[in-house]
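Q: Convert this sequence to structure tokens.
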Amino acid sequence: MKAAVLRAVGLPLQIEDVQIDKPGPREVLIRTVAAGVCGSDLHFLQGDFATPLPTVLGHEAAGVVEAVGCDVRTVKPGDHVITCLSAYCGHCDHCLTGRLNLCVSDETSRDADQPPRLARAGQPMPQYLHLSAFAEQILTHEHAVVAIRKDMPLDRAALIGCAVVTGFGAVTHTARLQPGETVAVIGCGGVGLSAINAALIAGAGRIIAIDTVASKESLARAFGATDFICSAQDNPVKAVRQLTGGGAHHALECIGLAKTAEQAFAMVGRGGTATIVGMIPPGQNLSIPGAALLSEKRLQGSFMGSNRFPVDMPRLVDFYMQGRLKLDELISRRIRLDQVNEAFAEMQTGEIARSVILFD
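A:
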């Protein structure tokens, strides 16, 4: 199969022929239909986060089940599915207490003495985030996929697998935003726009979008923002505190920088909560004023929107089909696999929401 391979940090991905194994017990073989190009992939490409190389990047995908191994109970051949990098075992403390996204069990990967799921010229190739989705096929554990209704367009369904479930879940599961509360969202990429959309659905009283790119205003307002602050022109902390009369109830940082995480904490008022959704690279530390904790302000992280993806993703699909969840507007460009490096270059301009790779 054709796949986009990362061989060295900072180098363009190469389109290569990669071998994929047959599904073993509890495993699913998927024909990839669409895969979103996510900022998390860029972090690994740039070396902000480490992953064994060479590998096939990509983790935000949707496709059709081609084959299943023995003991698979959740999907069958012909099912349309969305993938999720937060694969879960189902019986650890995190899973049993409903925090599937925090599962770190290695049971969803193959053991070292088993044949690899992916190989190149006979050499094993590490799988990226349980998926390696920039490829014509995906072989993974059944607890990394969920079946969805077949009338859902798969190019839009792919976005639910990361950007949408992350932004939406950060609002509804992690922050637990209540109707009427004010929220500031820093970063209007795929995750930030999904958070804005979620805040609208959850009944936020005021939704303040913040981005360095002024042209993002119209897109942010289309997703539900009531206000927009261009942080390249105005101090976002001062502006939010003025708009809200002392600080927002919630601030969501959807970029992944220490500076903007500190701004998120500073722009919430007494008793407010700053939720850090973006991936802050190792080595970047936050500095917050200790005295601010006396006002019961909270700083918390959110990983993949605190998702319970087998439940959340089908519900988000229904939201889209009902016209409440915006996915069409998230797709800035549909591309071929061999255009993936162009998508990463465009992403770094900050001008686009999401590029989606379509497979034949």
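The mean pLDDT is 97.
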